[in-house]
Amino acid sequence: xSKKTAAGSRPPAAACLSFPHLLRRVLGxxxxxxxxxxxxxxxxxxxxxxxxxxxxxxxxxxxxSYTVGGSASADAxxxxxGVGDLVHVQDPSIEGSTRGSLRLDFAAPVTQLGFGIALQxxxxxxxxxxxxxxxxxxQALDVVWLDTQALVVFSxxxxxxxxxxxxxxxxxxxxxxxxxxxxxxxxxxxxxxxxGSALLLAAGLAFLGRRKPQAFKAAPQRKRNQESP
Length: 229
Ligand SMILES: [Ca+2]
Known about the structure:
By secondary structure, this protein is of the alpha+beta class. The chain has helices at 3-8, 13-16, 19-35, 195-227; strands at residues 42-44, 52-53, 58-59, 62-68, 71-72, 76-80, 93-97, 101-119, 125-134, 140-150, 155-173, 179-189. The chain has two domains: 42-189, Jelly Rolls (Sandwich), CATH 2.60.120; 194-229. The protein contains four helices and twelve strands. The longest helix has 33 residues, at 195-227. Residues 45-46, 90, 92-93, 183 line the site of calcium ion.
């Protein structure tokens, strides 16, 4: 039997895959499914809704609470105009008194969080505000103190975080006699596979479990075919 005839009788390509090759192909497909899971980044520029009181507002997976002395306050607005076009914040934005604390609660925990902040000051300010990142139990994952810089008119900074899932963030200001502006809020919910992807993943693993013995039995047969004259 010639080599050409032997090649012509070769079994279909899929049957020739060794188990490691098959495993790589299936896992590659499953990885693509996994990456298509529901992780949609949000970018809020505070023009999503008209001017209104901030406390109690929820949109795109984040809820805002603004309190002064532990009580809900109307001294912070969403969609406020007046700060103009600065480096880290631009009209419209969130604006309020630094007497209060601002809390962001996320509908799904976020692994990335960022925002621009400006204080009504023309000076650089060290430790101008603290950002406390909270886990699912309300325990502090981290506390970050931000310095602000006098860039245009206000004293500004950009906060960016990437790490363990954060369920809420609490902002508190060192100087209670000023105003703050917050804008360009970015957050990325932790990826959670969609139900369909999870089912496909389970089906893929079940397929691998059935396929493994067959693939190992097929390999010696191919070797015998190649050695035949
Ligand atoms: Ca804006």
